Every structure is written in C-alpha cells, then in structure tokens.
Amino acid sequence: MKDWLPDLTRSSSPRYLALADLIEMDLRDGVLVTGDRLPPQRELAKRLEIDFTTVARGYVEAQKRGLIESHVGRGTFVTGRQSPAAQAFAALEPDPRRATTADFSMNMPPEPYDPDLLARMREGFYAVSADLPALLRYQPFGGAAMDRQAAAFWLARRGLMPPAERIFVSPGAHPALHAILGLLARPGETILSETVTYPGVRSLSAQLGLTLSGIAMDEHGILPEAFDAACRRLNPKALYLNPTLQNPLTLTMPEARRREIAAIAKTHRLPVIEDDAYGFLPAEGPPPFAALLPDLTWHVAGLSKCLGAGLRLAYVVAPDNKAAWPFASAMRATAVMASPLGMALATRWIEDGTADAILTFLRAEAAARQNLVASLLPAGSFRADPLSFNIWLPLGQGWTRSTFVSHMLSAGIGVVASDAFTVEGAAPEAVRVCLGGPVSREDLGNALDFMAHALQGSPEQAASFF
Q1: 355-465 adopts what CATH topology?
Q2: Residue 466: pLDDT band by 50, 70, 90 thresholds?
C-alpha cells in the first residue's frame, strides 16, 4: 500500500474535490503511479483529521474521473487512465459547422488553447453529464441551493457576502439588467450613466422607453459634482455603472472616486446598477459598489467575460429582500430560469478550481495581447488596460470613424464606431477594437499591423492600399 498523505492546502477546492485533484496532480507528477494502492478511506480520514464521508466522496469523484478503481476486499488502486466514456468524450472532434470567423467588433475573452486547460474544462462537461436527466428538467428561478452556494463562494472574492435569499443565478447579464431597469423606472423616466457607456444598456433603455442621460467623465470615471447636479436636476431613478475595466474606455474607477459616488447616491437615495462583468479579472481590484453601498446597489456579476462568452449566466445580488421578490417574479415571467446545464457546469468549475485556471489564462493572455498592441501602435495613441479585452482608439490624420470603419471592413476587420457608446453630445472620432474571441495572436497582429499602417497617413493615402 502506498503511504500517501495528500496536502489539502495545495487545492482551493472543497476538500472532497481537493482529494481527487491531488490524486490527479500526484499521478501527473509521478508521486503516484498506476497500480499503487491508496490508504483505506477511514485510515486516511483519521490521518487528515477530516470526516470519513469527505474522503469517501473524494474517492468517488476520483473514480468518476477514471483515476482510481475500488475493489471490495482488495482496496482502491490508481489506474492512471480515464474510463472508456471519458476517453470517448475527450476524443470528440469539434463540429466544423460551428466554426466562426475572426470578429474584432465583439468584446469577448480570448479563447483557451492550452491542452491541459481544455482537458480540464471538458472534464467538467463529462462530470456534470452524470446528472443529465435532472439537468433537463424545469427548475426554480434563481438556481438550486448548490448553485447559489457556488455563487456566494465566487462573489466572496469581490468582498460580497450577501444572504442566500438575495443571490440569484440569471440567464446572463442582459435579462437581469432588463428586469432591474424595468423595476426601477417607467417609460419616460431617466436613468443616469457615463457619457460613453456600454451599448447594451443603451439598447435596453430604448426598449423600455427610458431616457438615458450621460454624466461628464474624466480618467477616473463619472465626475462627482456632475453626478450630484444630475440627481438634483433630472430626478433620475437609477445610476448605471460599469466601473471596472469599463467597456469601451477600459478605465477602472478607483476606490476614492467610488466612495464619493456612493456617498452622493446615498444622499439622494438613488439605486445603483453595478454591471461588474469584468470585476473578477483584476486579481486585486477596488471594492464593488455593492460592498460600499449594499442597501442601494443591484450587483450583476456576469460570467461571460471571465469564463466564456457563451456561458450565459450572471450572479445577481439584490439590495434587500423586498427588492428581491419582484425581481424574481419579473425574471420568471420572461426568462423562466437559467439553463440548468450551464449552472451545473459553472458550479462544477468554481468548486473544482477550473474557473480559477480559466481566469489565470485570461489574465495572462489579455496582457500578452495588450503587449502586442503596444508593440505595433504608437504609445499614447490608444487607451487600454493590461487586462482589458479591447482598446479605445481615437482617430487623427483626417480619419473619421466612418471612413476608418469602412477601411477596416475592406480588409475583413470589424471595429465599432464610437456612436454605439455615446449617450450625450456628439460622438468622438474614435473606435473600439476588440482583441479576444476566436482570434489567434497571429491574426490579431496582422490586423493591428494593417491598422497601424493605415493610421500613419490620411484616408486618401490608405485608399491606395487596396
């Protein structure tokens, strides 16, 4: 029998998942080899000073992954291979009919390409498929208890620890924002936002017949004095903010400015809608508004930007129980529930550490792509953050946003003109250029090189390139 005593502190997952993780890690590192007999469950539980059922669940999880086999009367042995079902799942080839083309107009995270990370992500799909019949049923809105627990664990990383009854799993940020806006304002009433803001909130406000009014900004976000004046002048019903890695300007509102804005919102008793789509990307970012102003903030933490654009899930924190009830009712009426399959996968990835691995990849890949931008475009010619998935590109040399967008499209490169983001006043001559999605670094470099070449001269000179 192998004298195996795992160090549970090496994994941030729950203890039973940590046991399976450590079997897998030690097998990969050669600490365990095929044929090793693991300690009996009760003996290992006693040595680790943990509950027997935790070890039993850990062994079951490892067996699901095809790492071990248990034989009554003989013990538990390391197999070092996946089960036939897992092998078949991992061997599946992507369906070419779902292939997508490079698109620099959508602000998506870079797609993982590391084989080990992809294998780990696929393992999550395989593991949740064990409960497939249950995941194809209707479920109550807001998520099962285990999904809300995973949401609470994830939100705690942002310093948020709301009670479970105020946490909801929504089918993406957009439906949640639509419901919140509809609860807070009636047609014709005013919602405040940045002067240059996320286009999604512009579309939702228009759909609901709301008036979106922009607040003047500087490099740190909306100006406190302009916000206070707007509250006094316009009788707004809410303030919408995307305060971390703001889309499209990439700015992050510092803590001092957040506290100023929170104090003004508290004075006017104005609800804050905090779209925290990118909040988990910084390893250490400013506290969210939901931590500074919990009784007035609707916190929407989407997973699409920090785990995957197709994972249409968001964790929503209501400011109080009274607000939570009509929100749940509105969401049930329009969206029924989030996809149980998606919730199960997100919960699994959060519990077993895959979500952390994806975040680690995204941070490194975003930084690498921003370095590529910095190597090809002149310093000071664009606005960006090392962790942002886009850049904001002001135009000069006679370029207008329309001519630049048209020129890029002629080369098959999609960028978005500033009109889509502008709330107040004339749109600036600028475009948003996205760096993520199914675009390789090589393709990105070629596109950026084409942009840099065009921007060196006038539109008339660029026209001779094609």
Answers
A1: Aspartate Aminotransferase, domain 1 (3.90.1150)
A2: very low
